[in-house]
Amino acid sequence: MKTISNKSNWAIDMRLPFVKFLCPALAFACALGSQVAIAGDLEDAEAARDRKDYAKAVALFRKAASDGDAVAQFKLGGMVARGEGVKADVAEAVSLLTQSAKQGYAPAQNSLGVRYEKGLGVARDLARATALFQQASEQRYGLAQGNLSDFYVQGLGVPKDMVLAHVWSNLASVNGEARAARKRPAMERTFTLSQRSEAETNLAIMFSRGRGVEKDAKRAASLFQTAAERGYAVAQFELAECYDKGVGIAQDYQLAAQWYEKAAAQGHARAQMSAAYMYEIGQGVPKDARRAVHWYLQAAAKGEAIAQYNLGALLASGRGVEQDNVEALKWLNIAEANGSKQAAESRRLVEGLITPEQIAEAKKRADAWSKINSR
After folding, report:
1. Could you give the domains of the chain?
2. How far apart are CA 233 and CA 72, in angstroms?
C-alpha cells in the first residue's frame, strides 16, 4: 500500500546554490508530469504493438521501463522473450520480469514464477516459483491463483494439499480465471465430508479477510454457516464470531453463544474462551459463573493466556468456584509467563494476601503444570 509521508519542514541553506532546491508544488508537478509522460508512452507502445509495429513498441516500452515503470518492464520482457521487434534474449527478459516483479506487479510475478517452474532462462526452482505465485495470488491475480492451485494438487514446491488447491481454484474463478472451475469437480470427487467443510471454511476466511479476493462478509458468513451445520468446529467458531459482531449477518448474541458452545464442545480453545465469557457476563445466555469457570478451565489447559488470567481472577474472587488464592496464583503465574500483563498486576495483588509458603506452593504448581504442558 502506498503511503504519503507528512510534509517536512523546509529550511533553505543559503550557502548552497538555489537550483538545488525544488518547492513541494513544483516537485509534485514534475512527478505528475513524469507519470503522464510514462502513461502516454505506454499507450503509444500498446498501439504500436497492436498494429505489429514491434520496433516502435519496443523503443517506447524500453523508454518507460528505463524510468522504472513496472508495467513497461513486464511488457518489454515479454516482447524480448518472444523476439518481437528485437533479437530474442532470454536473460534480458528474465531481468526485466524480475525488476517488475520486485515492484510487486502481479502479472510479472506470475510470469517469472512460470519460468522458475519450467526452468526457462533460469535454474528450475519450485520453491521460488511457489513464492512468486503466492505473491501474485495475494493480489487477486486469477492466473497465479490457478497456478498455485495446480502446485497444491501436484505437490510441487509445497506439500500436496487438495483442500488448499480447492480454495485457490475457487478464488481464481472469482477473479476471472475460467479454466479453474473445470478442474474442481475432479478435486471434489476425492473429498470426504470433513475436507469439503474445511475447504468451505478456508474459502470463507479468505472472503472475510479480503485475502486474495474482494472482501465479502455476507458470502463468508454463508459459507461458515454451511460448514458449521455439518459440524465443523472451526466454522462453528467463525460463525459465532459473525453473530457476535454482526459481521455479514444480523447480530444475535443468543446464536453466537450457541455456536461458541458447539465449537467449544469439540475442543476449540478460542470458542471455549468465548463461551466462558458469554456465561460470565450473561450475554446470549443466562449468567452462570460455574459454567464460565468450566470453559475457562478447558481453554486455560490448552494454553490460552486470557483464559488462564480469567480463571485466576475467578478463583481469587470465589465467583463460580470455591475461593482459592493458591490455585488462583498458580494460574496467574502461568498466564504471566504466557505474556499476560494483566496477570502480572493481579499476581502481585494476590501475593499481598497470602503467606510466603503459599506463594511458593503456587509457584511449584505452576512450574509443574508448565513442565507437563510444554512437552
Report:
1. 193-302 (1.25.40.10), 303-375 (no CATH)
2. 48
Task: Tell me the CB-side half-sphere exposure of residue 132, using CA atoms within 13 A.
Answer: 27
Instruction: Assess whether pLDDT exceeds 70 at residue 32.
Output: no
CA distance 94 to 85: 17
Cell readout for 328 is 488462583
Q: Which three cell numbers stand for residue 96?
A: 526485466
Q: By the 8 A CB rule, do 243 and 256 touch?
A: yes
**Three cell numbers, residue 133:** 505465485
What are the cell numbers at 340?
499476560
Q: Which amino acid is at 305?
A: A
Comparing 27 with 125, the larger pLDDT belongs to: 125
- Residue in the block written with cell 505528475: 32
Angle made by CA atoms 58, 62, 68, in degrees to the nearest 5: 150
Question: What's residue 38's pLDDT?
Answer: 61
Written as one string, the DSSP assignment of 244-292 is HHTSSS---HHHHHHHHHHHHHTT-HHHHHHHHHHHHHTSSS---HHHH
